[in-house]
Design a protein that fits this description.
five-stranded parallel beta sheet; globular; binds flavin-adenine dinucleotide; seven-stranded mixed beta sheet; alpha/beta
């Protein structure tokens, strides 16, 4: 039997942040997760070679909010680290995101852009960059990632496509903090949930009758699964990951992540983990470890990664959302609960806001302002 005033389903960033804040404010909280580890999608581990591997894909932390940054610094030290990515175009490794100087060099300063109201992902991209650049870096990559033509994807997806100013090459130069937790995300999360009762390998949906939340159940799993898929299944994309150990190679590629926009190559990107490690740890790795990622459409909820950006899934999610909003004793939230891609800092910011609303609802006073 799992019983507490607040039962949190999911030990990822969303569930753990809400659990930590409620616990800090004197509440009776327990966490359950069906995985055999904490940290949800940001789980990482050191493998036998000594390389730090992010099990569910590379996670680059960036943040512009002092409140979020200070909150996380309670649980870990960080080291400064900015992601530098390349795309392999032909035989060349070219910087990604592209920057203005590079585009000017390739097409000149007079960019011929799409005119009129863009209606889909491709048209938004073409309204912001020349066609040649779009085809070199984005079209093939995007169509592999989603398994459909770029013209079938929502224009909202293009928010994530940036063109860097001047000759800047880092992935997220506009954020104040680009950093990684010194001992990895899992250790950071272990410290975040320290002292909170936690049960792993416990699927709430299979054990509902054995769970009592006196005040509120916070559910951070897939919203359609919560409602037993009554309106149909929301679509996600995920990645098949093949790990490769090159025992006798010191360095395989020039940076942490190489993207493959070439439609002939089924892979979408290769990660070389050494590049994101702290120099002291990196020096101890034997050879080098790679993860090759190939996109697919998962059926298993534990492999859900990116919500599918089209109208049909948006409408389906709205049906689930209105049912979720009507529940007074359950809060469904997080990347899977809200069917939404949140960067880590956004997921924490959202969880802080929700925790504040929960405290207001249950009249719990707090000396800390989280948002
Ligand atoms: C491939 C990929 C790469 C990413 N890279 C970056 C990046 O570089 N930088 C960045 O800032 N962000 C990145 N993110 C985003 C980041 O992963 C999310 O912000 C974060 O994981 C959100 O945490 P969450 O708690 O909402 O979800 P999750 O971490 O998925 O946690 C949900 C938890 O709920 C558990 N659960 C679900 N159903 C049940 C159930 N029925 N019973 C019990 N437990 C259950 C799950 O096991 C899981 O542990 C990336 C995301 C993806 C998909």
């Amino acid at each position: 039997m799992i019983k507490a005033d607040f039962v949190i389903v999911g030990a990822g960033l969303t569930g753990s942040t809400i659990a930590r804040i409620l616990t800090d404010n004197g509440q009776d909280v327990v966490i359950v997760d069906r995985k055999d580890h904490i940290a949800g999608n940001i789980y990482d581990y050191k493998d036998e070679s000594g390389a730090m591997i992010h099990k569910y894909g590379p996670h680059y932390f960036r943040c512009g909010s002092e409140k979020i940054w200070n909150f996380l610094n309670r649980f870990t030290e960080f080291y400064n680290w900015s992601a530098l990515l390349k795309s392999k175009v032909g035989n060349e490794y070219l910087s990604w995101p592209v920057n203005e100087d590079y585009i000017n060099k390739i097409v000149g300063e007079d960019w011929n852009l799409f005119k009129g109201e863009p209606l889909n992902f491709e048209e938004v991209c073409l309204s912001r960059m020349p066609k040649q650049i779009y085809e070199m870096f984005i079209k093939g990559y995007t169509e592999k990632q989603w398994g459909v033509k770029a013209t079938e994807l929502s224009k909202d997806l293009a928010v994530r496509i940036t063109i860097n100013k001047g000759n800047v090459n880092t992935l997220t130069p506009h954020h104040k903090w680009n950093a990684l937790p010194r001992y990895g995300y899992t250790e950071m999360m272990r410290s975040m949930v320290n002292g909170i009762p936690l049960t792993l390998q416990y699927d709430y949906l299979r054990n509902k009758e054995a769970v009592i939340a006196n005040k509120l159940l916070v559910f951070t799993g897939p919203v359609d699964e919560f409602f037993n898929y009554k309106h149909g299944k929301l679509k996600y994309r995920g990645q098949n990951r093949r790990i490769e150990h090159l025992e006798n190679t010191e360095q395989h590629q020039p940076c942490i992540q190489v993207n493959y926009p070439n439609p002939e190559d089924p892979r979408i990107r290769t990660i070389e983990w050494k590049h994101l490690m702290h120099p002291d740890d990196k020096a101890k790795v034997k050879g080098t470890m790679l993860t090759h990622e190939t996109p697919f459409t998962p059926e298993n909820a534990n492999q859900y990664e990116y919500p599918f950006p089209d109208k049909q899934n948006k409408e389906l999610y709205e049906q689930y959302k209105s049912e979720a909003d009507a529940l007074s004793d359950v809060l469904i939230c997080g990347r899977l609960g809200e069917y939404r891609y949140y960067d880590m800092d956004q997921a924490i910011g959202r969880a802080m806001k929700l925790a504040t609303e929960i405290m207001e609802k249950f009249e719990i006073s707090s000396s800390v302002e989280y948002v």
